Amino acid sequence: MQELSHWINGRHVKGTSGRFADVMNPATGEVQARVPLASKAELDAAVVDAARAQVAWGAVNPQKRGRVMMAMVGLINRDMEKLAEALSREHGKTIPDAKGDVQRGLEVIEYCINAAQMLKGEFTDSAGPGIDMYSMRQPLGVAAGITPFNFPAMIPLWKMGPALACGNAFILKPSERDPSVPLMLAELFKEAGLPDGVLQVINGDKESVDAILDNEVVQAIGFVGSTPIAEYIYGRGCSNGKRVQCFGGAKNHMIIMPDADLDLAADALIGAGFGAAGERCMAISVAVPVGDATADALIAKLIPRIEKLKVGPYTAGNDVDYGPVVTAAAKANILALVETGVAQGAKLVVDGRGFKLQGYEQGYFVGPHLFDHVTTDMDIYRKEIFGPVLSTVRAKTYEEALGYAMDHEYGNGTAIFTRDGDTARDFAARVNVGMVGINVPIPVPLAYHTFGGWKKSGFGDLNQHGPDAFRFYTRTKTVTSRWPSGIKEGAAFNFKAMD
Ligand code: NAD
């Protein structure tokens, strides 16, 4: 069986803790590799080396750091097929979806090519007599990222790219469920010219996360994962004096107004609700049709579409709409929540409970489910299911529908489908959710905007990628300078390149 490693000081390093986690093939239920789980001592040693390497990297001019990013873009594109295959093998998502995962990460690396522009400071000429004032954005030193299983390329790249482009060293603790792609990305960064030690990938579980949280050298932590862990990391990291941003779980509502194009809305719900087996933080898990006529018509359009969904392993190629969920425990949890929905009185209009895939009986496949007449007190409404289960909550009015999105504890993404600009504009202005789609079901902002949820979906005050990332991974120093006298002779007039 393959034994995975850590990536330390520019090479693969075997774990020394003696602890391992199994990396499963979710389609077959077989163990395909084991990943070492780092001890506190291993993590701390990697941080010491990273801090040493950061000194020189932080002094490299930002234009040159941008060139490493440019090379990285080329390498990721070169290896797209290989990365997508490794990603699908451990995560289970389809190959086109895995390529999307890599692509959305790659776009943030493209954005980071622009590091020199992003890191330009501010300058006030003659703030007083003979006094100039200027601000610089300086790297923090060592930053760390802790990432979830569901986007094993995109989210590590969202963290590594900006942190490194800003001149930091970076410790990545990827999900132990699918650690191969983050290790491959670290190899590519080395090939792109990143100096050894500046990027360390430390595999592990709670022990290495706690070691990051308590390590005095680590200045900043970016986390993405479930809300209970986000809250834990935010609390402990902040109380240890670190800069922390944590992005948590979600329950994304899509409101369907009576004037919406229902075919468009139904198609959107299928992709956003069941794509990647519902294991996306921006998945739509609640449909809120306004008016019973809209609800009845929408359900009638959804049922045949859901019944046609093809569930299978990524190796079946284009014949598959979505793959297995990530673990046996995730499957059991999803099916248990479906049972609570039935027991608490929701109407299960499409029942995927009996789903079996011949030849893959041990895989973690879950059939698609559609609930109607879901109410806000039910477990399937309150909890994040993170599986192929779409709930319908019927609203009588627009205000009632808006209230559902507003009152839910999560606030990651939301969408409205309507032909009326006034309703859409009102929704975008009032809803207390971080990312809003108007006739767009999964409104994931592009790399040059920022990504982040509100309420229990996001903790901290800066978002991921876009300009916020360059603020998160730097600190501002402001200099006030006066030169009472100076020698004005001996100026050099040759035109010299900065590198
Ligand atoms: P998770 O919270 O189980 O794990 C995330 C990371 O935390 C992993 O690296 C894991 O090793 C670590 N971890 C797990 N338990 C820990 C503990 N007790 N102490 C310290 N560290 C611990 O999340 P997951 O199952 O990998 O990912 C799915 C979750 O992530 C969903 O809730 C989803 O909504 C959320 N998510 C959110 C966003 C966003 O941007 N808001 C994006 C993707 C995923």
From TrEMBL:
<dbReference type="InterPro" id="IPR016160">
    <property type="entry name" value="Ald_DH_CS_CYS"/>
</dbReference>
<dbReference type="GO" id="GO:0006210">
    <property type="term" value="P:thymine catabolic process"/>
</dbReference>
<dbReference type="InterPro" id="IPR016161">
    <property type="entry name" value="Ald_DH/histidinol_DH"/>
</dbReference>
<dbReference type="Pfam" id="PF00171">
    <property type="entry name" value="Aldedh"/>
</dbReference>
<protein>
    <recommendedName>
        <fullName>methylmalonate-semialdehyde dehydrogenase (CoA acylating)</fullName>
        <ecNumber>1.2.1.27</ecNumber>
    </recommendedName>
</protein>
<dbReference type="GO" id="GO:0006574">
    <property type="term" value="P:L-valine catabolic process"/>
</dbReference>
<keyword id="KW-0520">NAD</keyword>
<keyword id="KW-0560">Oxidoreductase</keyword>
<dbReference type="GO" id="GO:0004491">
    <property type="term" value="F:methylmalonate-semialdehyde dehydrogenase (acylating, NAD) activity"/>
</dbReference>
<dbReference type="InterPro" id="IPR015590">
    <property type="entry name" value="Aldehyde_DH_dom"/>
</dbReference>
<dbReference type="InterPro" id="IPR016162">
    <property type="entry name" value="Ald_DH_N"/>
</dbReference>
<feature type="domain" description="Aldehyde dehydrogenase">
    <location>
        <begin position="13"/>
        <end position="479"/>
    </location>
</feature>
<dbReference type="InterPro" id="IPR016163">
    <property type="entry name" value="Ald_DH_C"/>
</dbReference>
<dbReference type="InterPro" id="IPR010061">
    <property type="entry name" value="MeMal-semiAld_DH"/>
</dbReference>
